[in-house]
Amino acid sequence: DTEVTQTPKHLVMGMTNKKSLKCEQHMGHRAMYWYKQKAKKPPELMFVYSYEKLSINESVPSRFSPECPNSSLLNLHLHALQPEDSALYLCASSNRDRTLNTEAFFGQGTRLTVV
Amino acid sequence: RKEVEQDPGPFNVPEGATVAFNCTYSNSASQSFFWYRQDCRKEPKLLMSVYSSGNEDGRFTAQLNRASQYISLLIRDSKLSDSATYLCVGGNFNKFYFGSGTKLNVKP
Description:
Distance between the termini of chain B: 38 Å
Distance between the termini of chain A: 36 Å
Largest interface: A-B, 28 and 21 residues
Oligomer: heterodimer
Order of helices and strands of chain B: EEEEEEEEEEE
Largest sheet of chain B: 6 strands, mixed
Structural class of chain A: mainly beta
């Protein structure tokens, strides 16, 4: 099973709303990622969790708040977003062990529109 | 300077053609390299990992040149279904960076 599941698939939210994106994997991967992808651009790294701890924050605004409740789940809490935050948000996971293949597997993404 | 750079294309080729993409990376400490394929409005899907010794999977061959810091992808006997954007990725086990993607259009 190489599946990463993201919910919801589509989300429309107002600038004053609070919403959360969810991601789940059952591959035993100990690294999980949030990426943001704008149209016709490559995915851009936002956050990395390693062993349930935040290891990388690529200077993401505080209106995006990640959370890793356990090794299988990753959330992204959204608050007071701007229209320019509209994008495809991708979750990924990979092995944390250098001796194993470290390919990242991606979920189908949440297409977010901020109005 | 971007971590990973690649020619955005598009590459327009006829069915059956052989096409090659190159990608350069700036961080000599990068250890892991991959090629992903992304179809329009879909998530990136892993095509293949890239190993130092080079590796082949059917019609696809990937190469890594650490001295020159580039990776390549060769597609032989192109199919219409190969039309997509091909993203090269470099990094290490906890940080992956994507190139801008190369768009491939395979025409009948």
